[in-house]
Amino acid sequence: xxxxxxxxxxxxxxxxxxxxxxxxxxxxxxxxxxxxxxxxxxxxxxxxxxxxxxxxxxxxxxxxxxxxxxxxxxxxxxxxxxxxxxxxxxxxxxxxxxxxxxxxxxxxxxxxxxxxxxxxxxxxxxxxxxxxxxxxxxxxxxxxxxxxxxxxxxxxxxxxxxxxxxxxxxxxxxxxxxxxxxxxxxxxxxxxxxxxxxxxxxxxxxxxxxxxxxxxxxxxxxxxxxxxxxxxxxxxxxxxxxxxxxxxxxxxxxxxxxxxxxxxxxxxxxxxxxxxxxxxxxxxxxxxxxxxxxxxxxxxxxxxxxxxxxxxxxxxxxxxxxxxxxxxxxxxxxxxxxxxxxxxxxxxxxxxxxxxxxxxxxxxxxxxxxxxxxxxxxxxxxxxxxxxxxxxxxxxxxxxxxxxxxxxxxxxxxxxxxxxxxxxxxxxxxxxxxxxxxxxxxxxxxxxxxxxxxxxxxxxxxxxxxxxxxxxxxxxxxxxxxxxxxxxxxxxxxxxxxxxxxxxxxxxxxxxxxxxxxxxxxxxxxxxxxxxxxxxxxxxxxxxxxxxxxxxxxxxxxxxxxxxxxxxxxxxxxxxxxxxxxxxxxxxxxxxxxxxxxxxxxxxxxxxxxxxxxxxxxxxxxxxxxxxxxxxxxxxxxxxxxxxxxxxxxxxxxxxxxxxxxxxxxxxxxxxxxxxxxxxxxxxxxxxxxxxxxxxxxxxxxxxxxxxxxxxxxxxxxxxxxxxxxxxxxxxxxxxxxxxxxxxxxxxxxxxxxxxxxxxxxxxxxxxxxxxxxxxxxxxxxxxxxxxxxxxxxxxxxxxxxxxxxxxxxxxxxxxxxxxxxxxxxxxxxxxxxxxxxxxxxxxxxxxxxxxxxxxxxxxxxxxxxxxxxxxxxxxxxxxxxxxxxxxxxxxxxxxxxxxxxxxxxxxxxxxxxxxxxxxxxxxxx
Length: 926
Ligand SMILES: [Zn+2]
What we know:
Blueprint: E1 26-29, E2 35-40, E3 47-54, H1 68-75, H2 87-94, E4 104-107, E5 112-119, H3 123-138, H4 144-161, H5 164-176, H6 191-196, H7 199-209, E6 215-221, H8 225-236, E7 260-266, E8 273-281, H9 288-313, E9 319-330, E10 333-342, H10 347-364, H11 368-387, H12 394-407, H13 414-427, H14 430-440, E11 446-453, H15 463-475, E12 500-506, E13 511-516, E14 521-526, E15 534-541, H16 549-556, H17 558-564, H18 572-578, E16 584-590, E17 594-601, H19 606-618, H20 624-639, H21 645-657, H22 669-673, H23 677-687, E18 695-700, H24 704-715, E19 738-744, E20 751-760, H25 765-789, E21 797-803, E22 809-818, H26 823-839, H27 844-861, H28 865-877, H29 885-894, H30 897-907, E23 913-919
Parallel strand pairs: 2-6, 7-11, 14-18, 19-23
Antiparallel strand pairs: 1-2, 3-5, 3-6, 4-5, 8-10, 8-11, 9-10, 12-13, 13-14, 15-17, 15-18, 16-17, 20-22, 20-23, 21-22
Helix pairs in contact: 3-8, 9-11, 9-13, 10-15, 11-13, 16-23, 17-23, 19-24, 25-26, 25-27, 25-30, 26-30
The structure holds zinc ion.
The site of zinc ion has 3 residues, from α1.
């Protein structure tokens, strides 16, 4: 839930009383002030999430403590009473909990939140998790040696954030935050403090602020609430508040009642962005009136978004991006914000176009038709939530209670919120919405923040110019907004249904395979994992591989052009209106060796989803104006690509790895020029012209009987030519041998390393599993060595990908950021870890950790429709058998340190190794 603003409106739903917490949550406060929230929930089964929420953040730091709220968070993983040194992470890994992906924490200005998901089938683990929470609450050790090791890691975390965005933020934050304490308390802190602070300084922070009357434990999951409540009382009851308790001040950003302006340019910034923030006091979201305001604001934002969409898509649009909304800004402030990216040669025109809609809105308001649509969409969203109320994930619930505790944000429960929503939608009037414009969009407390590439600095307006542009627009004689009239149907004719000519069932996985009269195959897997969720995907062999290099740019961009052009009788804007209140989506795709569609739907909207699928097959639209708009915007987007260090590094890497293959390298003006709209359209039509090549897979709350006529109507009616297509093997693969390239770009003192090990292999489920195991174990080792032992990196990543088609290929990418002077040392350490895997094999402990992680994520995966959809479709596309969980267990049993040592020797020889390094430009030889 977002926070709302405070504006009183007469209504049937208006009460200043706080909405009570969902009665399904057990909550209480111990005599020492420690709060807890517990809820039983079985989605997913056999799991619980534990959160420790602290009303403690960087805002509470003294000057000498800047960065230590966040440092404290790190130290909670580096030694507590019951888990000295790094024992905590290692212990949890053995239980199948991954560091970073599962186990996590964050620190912001006002709060620090720790998160731990655990399996609940072992009662010991629930007890231990409660113990860990207690350790986090008050028992971090702050060992001097561990602090020293952590300094380097946090400095690396800080280094990762150094960029043009960060440099510019430093300049405009004091303005946006009115010079308040927030501008001086960036959670990451200062180098000076991070390098030099004494253990006493951080211990003092901990002692002052980590105290029960600022803390809450939130547990949601497959647990016994009574037993856990008892446990919490006994484990947390003796936590003490400090004797000389400091006051937990609620810091605010003062409103200065003045307009401010700042224009900043940076040579690594890639677009011109004009932002307006109009600030005003915020109000907590705790009462019915607050909730009513939240709903209204959400309707307002939705309608505004719909007004901007056609403007952005118009031919010769002078904007490459635009958005506006009313939202929470920070601390005690809300803001109306507008962000417009004008094209560099049309800054004035672009900005005026964006501002004109706001002025039009202030003058004429929204229309009844718009409000009606926005209400339908909001209601549909609320109904979807309601339908899944007993299948809502524990994590979603827990996050709500965390916000309830920290910021008093209502957590009334899904049913109660739905009732309120219906009442509010029933009586909110157009006049209420239009009043928001005048209460929010004012000429006071207004900040202009302009960001631009260095080269465009001279063309930026100053404050007087910008204000005069606004005034000129305000003096124009505007016409009221005219809604996109739309009574058109999507399809010109109702499709002539085909027939289901064959049906087979597969009992192990509960699959039905239907063959339609046009040769199209449909696989259905009904599940009860959600109450109202159907996911689907469709694929045919082919994709871009079927076309020559000359056509590549056209085919690769075909779907994005098509998607912006609308479909059937409707433009994109008309389509979004047509789909008002529906919970569904459909997207065609063309990948390298396949093409098809993917989507999702509620049960009631399945018919609409399939109608749209039919339309994307049979009635794609060609729209020259939209095409020109897309190409124009793409030109603007890549105009400054060469100034952004990460884009330059990415493009260089692709060039080196794929030896300048034009299908693999980054975007360029030359490539844009090769996109031919007619060709893209013809190729799209060709790819989707033959139903007999496609297989659809549907997973979820499927009513097979009800679905059959829909399948016959919308899929059975797609024309077929019975001409089997296939993909081509273009033999695109990473360069062989040992290659090294240094790229010099960017002004920050930072490096990025990307090591790629690759080769050909005979793809099999076993080889794939072994390489995934090795990947995870290597990642654990790199974390232990490069981060914890050498303090040289923040978060090293190992990414594995293995493919069977068009050629058997495996790839390991090892990626990390670090200080430029540490690159050689850290690369040597990473390669040394690979050598060790080859020579000695992994430790039994790390193999066990991987097995635990794998089994645990398989258990939760099997409880999601998305997992099943991907499992079934990838097995089919790769000609692999579906494997039942028990069979997986057998495969796991076969994996040992010895077998992985063989895998490492075989695949990680280092024979094909590409080392790419991004370094600061001033290190490059002239
Ligand atoms: Zn951190």
